[in-house]
């Protein structure tokens, strides 16, 4: 039997390749394919694909195509082309490619997930309910402040316990961020020593690894590889098992204890939506709720963890920026009270630092892949319905024509000469998509920026962050970051030294 299996598999692969090559699509040209089926896969820098795409755009234009393991992918670079896809033609480019590994992550059902097409009304309904529950203004921000500051206070205690000795910050920051997101999603208070946090951290790593390695790409093309020990399949299965072991009991608990008059978290809002839809004969399933919460958890934890961890690396490399931030914090907030979101409007340098940090790191360098929802055009190039589209946001945030010395951190890019914030129509604000734009913009961008403000001000109110004694800090150049679903700083050590007020303030 085994001797018959291999020829059959080879025959299937040959048939697949022939069909792919005979099916011609009208798409923009790109670099020639060096290998049949493999296409351009081995020419793309797996750790810095965004830089590979920028280099190719110089020869083939801002919109071109590549072929990776038989799949045509359109690559979009530069502000004009990215803006047209994100904003001008937001509806046409709001689809998602149907990838097998993503389907596995979603328990076999795209509906309701951020991986679903925008044209699906159920997905939009669930997204709207989640956004509404987050209440990103007024009392919603007050609640974010209360939740975040409580966890950050515990984080400060953990940093104090290091007694100014070097430590690796990523896992600690991840625990704090996870506590905040879980409280927001499930109304459940966790402390940083809870065993669930380490398990959830492992879950995220499994998902990220499966999305960032070659075995995941091959699983998309040949789903039957799951029967032959495919690494991505094993990782996705382990991640789903962890998710269900923690999320399902939390959802069950909310269902049993929900106060319908006072919904307290995103899970409550989704359960109420489920009940409302049932009354009008429509169905929101348990899976819809679970996957919507999964999307929010993954997006909220990963991005904030990488942003805050990357911030510490940046501060070690830019001590003069760290000092300016501390002086502004001392002048506006002082040392006798915790920071408040009400302080934001008086802290132009801190706000500019956060914006510049997001531009500089550009953690969502390529965002999540898109797919066209209809036949359309982009910068005059015809594109067929259903083709995968990758938007190179990195090319916008590191365009040398817009950002001089783009790999140097300069908070002043977002300040006028008098130190006030630049206006929304300033070129540096317009050429800036840290949370995407259009229909697919991050649903919690206000909360995310507010959460970052509280992390920055709370940590720098208490500490100065330095490299291990007698060493220089590792580079914070984001081109050296690891690539997963988002960019992640390489592991590094840092010391948290209790901040002393400068002599002129004593």
UniProtKB/TrEMBL annotation:
The places in or outside the cell where this protein is found are: Endoplasmic reticulum membrane; Microsome membrane
Where primarily located?
endoplasmic reticulum
| Gene3D superfamilies in the cross-refs | Cytochrome P450
Which molecular function terms from Gene Ontology are attached?
Answer: heme binding; iron ion binding; steroid 17-alpha-monooxygenase activity
Record-level GO cellular component terms: endoplasmic reticulum membrane
**Top-level taxon of origin:** Eukaryota
Amino-acid positions noted as binding heme in the UniProt annotation, renumbered to this chain: 442
Any single biological process term in GO: hormone biosynthetic process
Q: How does it sit in the membrane?
A: Peripheral membrane protein
User: What cofactor requirement does the entry state?
Assistant: heme
Report what the protein is called. Uncharacterized protein
Which species is this UniProt entry from?
Answer: Owenia fusiformis (Polychaete worm)
Traced from the root, the source organism's taxonomic lineage reads: Eukaryota, Metazoa, Spiralia, Lophotrochozoa, Annelida
